[in-house]
Amino acid sequence: MADIEKKLKELPDKPGVYIMKDKNDSVIYVGKAKVLKNRVRQYFQNSGGKSAKVTSMVSHIEDFEYIITDSEVEALILENNLIKKYSPKYNIMLTDDKTYPYIKLTTNEMFPRVIMTRQRGKDKAKYFGPFTNSAMVKENLDIINNVWQLRRCRKKFPGDIGKERPCLNYHIGRCMAPCTGKVSEEEYKKHTDAVEDFLSGRQDRILERLSEDMMKASGEMEYEKAAKLRDSINAIKRLGEKQIVEGMSDCDRDVLGLARAEGDAVVQVFFIRGGKLVGREHFMLSYPDGAERENTAETFIKQFYGGTPFIPKEIVTGTAIEDREVIEQWLSSVKGQKVSIVTPKKGEKHKLCELADKNAALILDKFGEDIKREHNRTLGALEEIKEALGADFDLNRIESYDISNTQGFESVGSMVVFERGKPKKSDYRKFKIKSVYGPNDYASMEEVITRRFMRYKKEKEEGGEKPKFSVLPDVLFIDGGKGHVHTVENALEKLGMSIPVCGMVKDDRHRTRGLIYKGRDILLSPNSEGFRLVTRIQDEVHRFAIEFHRRRRENREFRSVLEDIKGIGEVRRKRLIKHFGDIEGIKKASPEELAAVEGMDRPAAEAVYAFFNRKEEG
User: How do beta strands 27-33 and 93-94 pair?
Assistant: First the structure.
């Protein structure tokens, strides 16, 4: 245990972030402070009035670290990033991992396109949204393609200008075909500016221009063009009528509503863009036991807007935000312009907050039973397992391991992670067995465990922006019996690490039977949520290992066969595999189908076709 008293005396009188850790060196809480010395000391003072969460957390703290920052804003950003990285047990967490569609205008390239995306890259493109369903995105894209005819191809300009004939979209009037070189950048930019106005909600300006163009076309007796413009005007008006919000200016704003219940909360968000409601969505948050509820809206704002591609100019919430000024500074720096957080007491914005609150309450009521069921099958199940084990450690993060091979061929290891009873697929890892030859599961498991925790030690020493193994588990679940458990315990001991290890054992019918812990069988009732969770973990780690092994085996087969064909190198092999899926698909393909694969030409396609057909005939 670290000398906490000594470390408390060394705390600086500066802003920063503090990181609380338990006996396994796992991060259990991350917080920020205007003055680190004052904030961190409060946790360890004997004065009363501490919440149940703080009391529980302090009892598990074995060490803490802190990082000094130049300002509160920097501390807030760092706190947010660390919470996302570690998912600490005692922080309120935004549990939804939904991603929402945005419309991206690729202003970072010559002759920009409009596309739907759910990810934001570090580029100079412009993003509009979020949209809560892809149907609304499609409706907007259809209008854009019909009215402004931006390109949809992935050609690289100016290099691809004049290389090929224009595509079908040009011939049906849905693309200006900048690939022909007949459209100047200035002319094309007029269209992209109009698209930006449309997506920004400045539809009055758009409708005025289109009406002028329609009247001009009609006056010049271009009736087909005028009719098309009329239809476009009507489509834009219909879309606008669906979205109108009475009394709202054309500012982009999100309105937050909140409903809370024991252990969970719902935040309802109304997305208003250009004074129009483009969608609404709800988000779930989970609380550690005994957590204060006053921080819910603030926690949501920090976690949600720390990861969304678009930040509105105004965030409206019925709950006062304690660190409002600091959060505003942070969001403004991210957006590049002023962002305000307002808590209205009357008027239209206040009514919208009340409406959002009511929607949140309805959702919480509607999904209340589902929330309880989910709690039972996750956190409740973990409590059952912990009680059955007689464990004095948490099971917040479980790492599970399995080995897969075919008579020792292409041996692989899999690692899956369950946090708070749910799979965390972003932390799954795969291992190609390097030092073991033949069917030796024990030695293979020892290699996997050793490599995993050696990587942990290396990342802790070297740091780095994207660590993959820096979070330690509370417990290891190994797919296997006493021999596997003993192997893993020995590997950990050699590394100087102490982590509880459980074996997941199966019965004669290859179904989950129970756990092995400290050399004894732990039998769970087949009807219990704990038993079902162990089964899910065992099935998941086995599935992950089998799928990886199958891909490795198939890729080896693909490579061994295709390497014999003249003119088919590594790049073409990979593209053929990706396109056709397996050897049988490649065998059945015609020369034309083979030539259609990216990177293949006619001679290469003929060589592949001839190779397999000669082989079949012979």
Answer: unpaired
Most confident of 22-36, 343-357, 428-442, 483-497: 483-497
Domain residue ranges of the chain, discontinuous segments joined by +: 4-90, 102-243, 253-366, 378-552, 563-617
The answer to whether 335 and 311 have CB atoms below 8 angstroms apart is yes
C-alpha to C-alpha distances, 173 to 80, 177, 409, nearest whole angstrom: 48, 10, 56
Could you read off the pLDDT of 233-267 as tens digits, one per residue? 877 776 654 444 444 456 788 999 988 876 678 88
What lies within 8 Å, CB to CB, of 395 at 6+ separation is: 382, 385, 386, 474, 475
Could you give the dihedral angle defined by the CA atoms of residues 573, 579, 581 and 587, in that order, rounded to the nearest 10 degrees? -70
Number of Cβ within 10 Å of residue 84's Cβ equals: 14
Question: Comparing 58 with 203, which gets the higher pLDDT?
Answer: 58
Query: Full-prediction pTM beyond 0.70?
Result: no
Domains 253-366 and 378-552 share a fold: yes
d(CA 285, CA 252): 25
The domain defined by 378-552 folds into Nucleotidyltransferase; domain 5 (3.30.420)
Select from 353, 327, 129, 357 the least CA-distant residue to 248.
Answer: 353
Report the mean per-residue pLDDT for the chain.
83
**362 vs 121: which has the higher pLDDT:** 362
